[in-house]
Specification:
The protein is an all-alpha fold. It contains two helices and no strands. The protein is rod-shaped. The model has no long low-confidence stretch (mean pLDDT 93).
């Protein structure tokens, strides 16, 4: 079942195309940005944990 007769009418979305596609773009950009920001902060947290556990191991070896 097709709701639109042509691809152009699909893009125009009954006169609301600019608003609809702009919203899709903003949401897509936000989700992609959130993904990269989350990945970067996760990598940073992993590095901090590695340094923490390395210091902890060094302290345990000195105390033994």
């Amino acid at each position: 079942m097709m709701y639109f007769e042509t691809f152009e009418s699909f893009i125009e979305m009954g006169g609301h195309g600019l608003y609809i596609w702009l919203c899709y773009g903003i949401v897509s950009f936000s989700l992609i940005g959130y993904y990269f920001i989350s990945a970067k902060s996760t990598a940073k947290a992993k590095q901090e944990l590695k340094r923490f556990y390395a210091r902890l191991d060094a302290q345990n070896q000195v105390n033994e």
